[in-house]
Amino acid sequence: MDEGRKIRVLVAKPGLDGHDRGAKVVARALRDAGMEVIYTGLRQTPEQIVAAAIQEDVDVVAMSILSGAHNYLFPRVMQLLRERGVDDVLVVGGGIIPDEDIPGLKECGIAEVFTPGASTADTVKFIRENIKR
Amino acid sequence: MNQGDLSGEYGRWKSGPYAKTCARFPERKERFEGSSGIEVKPLYTPLDVEQVDYVNDLGFPGEYPYTRGVQPTMYRGRFWTMRQYAGFATAEESNRRYKYLLEQGQTGLSVAFDLPTQIGYDSDHELSAGEVGKVGVAIDSLADMETLFDGIPLDKVSTSMTINAPASMLLAMYIAVAEKQGVFANKLNGTIQNDILKEYAARGTYIFPPKPSMRLITNIFEYCSTAVPRWNTISISGYHIREAGATAVQEVAFTLADGIAYVKAAVDAGLDVDDFGPRLSFFFNAHNDLLEEVAKFRAARRLWARIMRDRFGAKDPKSMQLRFHTQTAGCTLTAQQPDNNIVRVTLQALAAVLGGTQSLHTNSRDEALALPSQDSVRIALRTQQIIAYESGVADTIDPLAGSYYIEALTDEIERAAADYIRRIDEIGGAPAAIERGFIQAEIEESAYRYQMEIESGDRTIVGLNDFQIEEDRPSGLLKVDPAVGDLQCRKLAQLRAERDNAAVEASLAALEHAASGSDNLMPYILDAVRAYATLGEMCGVLRGVFGEYKPTVAY
Amino acid sequence: MDWQEIVSRALARDIRAVSRLISIVEDRRSGFENAYAAIYPHTGRAHVIGITGPPGSGKSTLVDKMAAEYRGRGKTVGIVAVDPTSPFTGGALLGDRLRMQRHSLDDGVFIRSMGTRGHLGGVSRATSGVVDVLDAAGYDYVLIETVGVGQSEVEIASLADTVALVQVPGLGDDIQVIKAGVMEIGDVFVVNKKDRPGVERVVAEIRMALDLAGNASGRVRAYSGHHGPTAASAAGAVATTEVTPWRPPILQTMAESGEGVAEVCDMCDVHMCRLTEDGTLVERRLRRAKSETMQIASDLIWRGLADDPRTLEAAEGLARKVAQREMDPYVAGRSLRELIVN
Question: Can you give the pLDDT at residue C221?
Fold first, then answer.
C-alpha cells in the first residue's frame, strides 16, 4: 500500500445549482485514480468553499456549475483564495460554461475549464500534470 | 407451424446459418444491451411473446391496463400537446418568447423558473447573486407573474410550470393572475411539477424537509380537487432521474415508487384515491435507444394501472391512466457538432410519439451550451410538427404493438421495474429509500458506468469520441444579461414601497400560524400572494416553521 | 513557510498553519518528526471523543450537532472524519464533511477529512498524529468520527478518552450490538433515530450485552463515586477509596433534530470528570503511549524489512515453498526471522 503523498481534491458545487451527476462522476473517477476526494455537497457559498479548501489543505479545488452563474461565483472563489494568501491550490471548473467565458475565467486564475464532452481521464491527467507542489 | 416446430426451426437457424456467419464475421459486440443492461438478442420471434395475452396484457387504447394508450383515439383525435419549456431573464422577455412560440404553433405553455425562484429566494437575497434569470424567469411576486402572462388568455392556454418546493405559491399566483383576467380558477388548465421526492434524489431544488413538503403537496391535491379541478396537481417525474444517470428500468421504477409515496401520503391524509388520482400526471425522458424507450413508456402505463387498481383500490378508470409529458434527453446533447443534436432529438421525439406521450418538449440543438436561441427553438418545434404532419406515425394507435421485440421488452422492463419497487417497499418506500441513499446510489452507479463506457470507447457518441472534426464554436448563443439581477432588485424595492405592507404582514403572520397547525395552507398562501407578499417572504416564513432539508448522503 | 513557523502559527491556532501541519504529520513529510516533537508537549489538554457506529447510524449528523452544542457552550472543537481508502485504487471518497459544512465558517470549529490509507483497523495510524495537532492547537474537544466496521471501533478506544458508540434501530443487524470487543470499549452508548420502531429492543440488547461484558471480562474501569454517572454525582463527587465501575449510559437521540444531543455532550463531560478524578485518565494515556510507542517501533522495523530486497527475495522463495505445501507458514516465518536477525 503506497504511503506516498496523495493528491487531495475538493469537489464543490457553488451556488444554487442542484445537478450533481457530473460532480459525482468526476469525484469517483478521481478516487479511482488514487486521489482523496472531499465533496462539499450542494449550495456552497464561495466562503464555504474556500474555508473547506483551507482546512482540508487540498491540492485542487474542482467546481462544477451548470446554472450559468459561473462568471460571478468562480471569480469570487479566486478572490477569496487570494485574500487568504492561498496560492498553491490548482483551481479547475466544469459544467455548462460557454467557450467565450473561458478566457475571462482563466484570467482570474481558473487553470482549466472542462466543458461538456471532456473526459474524466482528461481531468485526471490535467490535475496530475499541473498541481502546484 | 406450431410452437414446437417453430422452436426447432429457430434452433436450426441459430446454430446453423447464424452461427456460421458469426464465426466468419463476428458481430460488432460480444453482447448487445439496452440502457438497463437487458440483453438485446439478435432476433425475436413468437417464442418470445408466448406469455403475452392480448386482452389482459395489451388490451385496447383507453382501457385497462392502458398498455396501448390512455385514450381511445389518441393522436387520430388530437396530436400530443407541443409544449416547449421556456423562460429566462425577466418576465417581459419570457412573455415575448411565449407569444412567439404560440404564434409558431405551440399548443401549450411551459414555464421555466430561475434557481432563486425554485428555491424560494427573492432576487435580492444573498444566495441569489449571479443566479437571477439564468436558467429560467425570475418571479419574485404576483407583479412579475402578471407581466409574464400579460396578453395571454389563461382560459385559452394550458400552462405547465416546472416548480416544486414553492409550487403552492406559484400556483396561487397563477390563480390570482387569472382572477385579474376575469377567469375563474375552475376553468384553468395546466400542471405544476410539485414532485419533491425527485428533488431530494436527483434534482436538488428542495427547500423544506420531507414531512412538511408532503403536507404542502397533499394540501394542493385537496384544494385543487374542488377549486381547480382541471389542474394536474403533480407531474411525477422520471426525466431528471434519467438525466442524473439512471437506466430506463430505474427511471420507471423510481418514478412509480415516488408516485406510490404520493398516493399513500394523500390517502393517509384522508383523501379518497379517486378524488385526486385522475389528476396525477407523469413526466418522462425520451432517450436514445428508440425501441427501448417505446417499450419503457408502455411498461410504465401498464405497471401504474396495475398499481393503482390492485394496490390502492382505485375505481375510477381515470385514476389508473398514466398520462405523461415527455422531454427529449438533455444529457445526450453534445457541444461538439451541435447540428447533430437535431437528429438526436428527432429520434427521441419519435420514440415519445410511438410511446404515446400526451405532450412533448423537444430540446434545441444548442442546449449543451446555453439556453436555446430563437432559431434553435423554432427548429425544435418544427421537429414535432414534421413528425405529426408528415411522417404518418400518428395516424394509427400504438403502431409498434405486436412486434416480438417490443412486447418482450415491455414485459421485461415491467418485470424489472416491479422488482425494484419491491426492494424499495422493503426499505420502507421511496422516502425511506432516499433517506438511506439507496436510490441515489443506484443512479450514481449507472451514471458512472455510462461515463466509463464512453471513455473506454465501448459506447460511441458521434462527434464526441468518434467522427470528431475540428470546429469553431457556434455563435449566436443566448446570453442572459447580467443586469437582470439589478433590474429585479429595483423592481422589488419599488414593490415594497408601493404595496400595502400592513396587509402583507398580516397575511404572513396568518400563514405562519396556519403552518404550525394542520390547516390546508392554500387559502393562506393565496391571501399573501394577492397582497403582493414576495416569494422569499412567504418561503422565509415556512422555512422558519418547517426548517430546511439537510441532505445527509454524500456518495 | 518552514516547519518552525508552521508550528508556532499552528500553536496559535492559525487555521492555515494547523491545516498544513496536519498534512505534514499525516504524510510524514520531511521535517515531520521535528514538528511533531515541537507540538507534542502541548498535547494532552483536549478531551478526545471517538464516535463510531455502523454506516447509516447518523454519526456525522451527531458529530455536527455535538460540535454546535459545544460551540454554544463557548468551547472550540476539532473534528477528524475518517472514511475508508479503497484498497484497490488507493483513493477515497471523503463524504462526512458534507453533513457539517455549516461549521466551515466558524473559526472555532476545524473539520478535517481523512482516508484510512490501508490501515487494516480502519482508523489510520496517522489519525493519532492529526488528533495531536488539533490538541496542541488548543481545541477544547477533538471528535473523531470513524467507519464503524469491526476492528476500527476497537482501535479508536486506544486514541480516545471517551468512546461513544452509535446504534440505530431497524438496520436489521442485531449482531452489530453484541460484537466481541465492541461492548468493552463503549463509554457512552447512543441509540440514534429513536423515532424508528425497535428502539426499546436495541436499548435492552445493549443493556444485556453490557451486563454480560461487565461480568464475564471482569474488566472494570475504576472510577470513584457512589452511584451511576449523573451530572449531580460528578459535580459532588468526592474521592473515596471505594471504586465503582462506570456504567456506560444508554442515551437516545434524534440527531437530525438535535434532540438528546445536549445529554450526549453532558455525559461525555461527566465521563471525562470521572477519568480525571481518579487517575484512570492517566492510566489510559499511559497504556496508549505504550501501545503507540511499540506500534511505531514495530512499524519502523517492518519498514526496514519491507524495503530490503534481500528480505523480499527470501520471503518470495519461502512463500513459494509454503504455497506448494513443502513448508508450513510457521517454519517459513521462523526461517525468515532467523535470516533477518543474522
Answer: 41
A-interface mutation test, from C32, C61, C80, C101, most A Cβ less than 10 A away:
C101
Q: Would the CB atoms of C19 and A36 count as touching at under 8 Å?
A: no
Range of the domain at A86: 8-128
Number of domain units in chain C: 3
What value does the mean pLDDT of chain B take?
95
* Residue C197 within any structural domain of the chain: yes
Burial of C288 (0-12, 13-18, 19+ CB in 10 A): middle
Rounded distance between C-alpha atoms, residue C78 and residue A107, angstroms: 36
Look up the CATH number of the domain holding residue A46.
3.40.50.280
Amino acid at B496: R
User: What's the sign of the alpha-carbon dihedral C178, C182, C185, C190?
Assistant: negative
Residue of B246, B315, B321 lying closest to B282 (CA atoms): B321
Contact B407, B52 (CB under 8 A): yes
> Is A80 within 8 Å of C12 (Cβ atoms)?
no
CA A16, CA B125: separation in Å to the nearest integer?
12
How far apart, in whole angstroms, are the C-alpha atoms of residue B116 and residue B132? 7
Q: Which of B101, B104, B98, B127 is nearest to B114 (CA)?
A: B127
If asked whether residues C300 and C156 sit together in one domain, one would say no
User: Is residue C68 assigned to a domain?
Assistant: yes
Spatial strand order in the sheet of B234-237: B81-82, B359-361, B324-328, B280-286, B234-237
pLDDT for position C176: 54
How close C145 comes to chain B (CA, Å)? 15
Q: Which chains touch B (3 or more CB pairs under 8 A)?
A: A, C
Q: In terms of Cα–Cα distance, which of B385, B372, B373 is closest to B346?
A: B385
Judge if C26 and C170 occupy the same domain.
Answer: no
CA B28 to chain centre: 34
**What pTM was computed for the model?**
0.89
Q: C92 and A37 in contact by Cβ < 8 A?
A: yes
Higher-confidence residue of C150 and C221: namely: C150
**Predicted local distance difference test score (pLDDT) of residue A45:** 96
